[in-house]
Design brief:
This protein is an alpha+beta fold. It contains 3 helices and 7 strands, in the order βββααββαββ. It has a 5-stranded antiparallel beta sheet, with helices on one face. Strands 1-2 form a two-stranded antiparallel sheet. A hairpin with a 4-residue loop joins strand 6 and strand 7. The longest helix is centred in the middle third of the chain and has 18 residues. The N and C termini lie far apart (31 Å).
Amino acid sequence: MTAGAFSATTGEEADTITEQARRLRRRLGRADLRAVPEARQALRELLLHWGKPGRSEIAELLTSELVTNALLHTDDDAVLTAVVEPGGLRVEVRDFVARRPEPYAPVTDDDTHGRGLLLVQSLADTWGVRSHGVGKSVWFELGAEAA
């Protein structure tokens, strides 16, 4: 069963969740913060029966942080990709700006900004940044069985 497909007319790949691949791919519009809860919902559906209790919630939180960063700190679209394999999950958010993100220690009186990458760094099993010809991908991985 497949939810979503490749559009030959627009060249865009829509959300794709298949029994075999268990993959989600979604284009996120420039500065469209409505994409954050939509991305969380799509990931929630992908991870419906995945991992130990709490793992899906961590994945949703980290995904929303990466999506928010891509939409707030670039002036372009982004692409969310999530792949579930038997041992774990990999989520990647690609944007089209070369500037690399830096984890940053937030100011104590600023309680809403600067914690996204610190959360990713703290909660993901592994994470990183990969450069592309144009832009970069920020990614994380979570094992299904970790506590």
